[in-house]
Amino acid sequence: xxxxxxxxxxxxxxxxxxxxxxxxxxxxxxxxxxxxxxxxxxxxxxxxxxxxxxxxxxxxxxxxxxxxxxxxxxxxxxx
Length: 79
What we know:
The protein has helices spanning about 5-20, 25-70. By secondary structure, the protein is an all-alpha fold. The protein has one domain (about 1-70). α1 (about 5-20) crosses α2. The radius of gyration is 28 Å and the shape is elongated.
């Protein structure tokens, strides 16, 4: 089976290349290029949303940690 790896790889890459050079392949490539042009804006928006969500999570965790602290600091746990 190993002797077929290279020929099948070449055939597969050649087929993909032939498809991309065809009319339909060029349309698909231009659509992909157009989508990638708008990607940075969407990534920045996602990044800002994610940072805001992480801030809300951090605030909630801080509130939980404060609520778990002992109310009487002079009493030590376990003694």
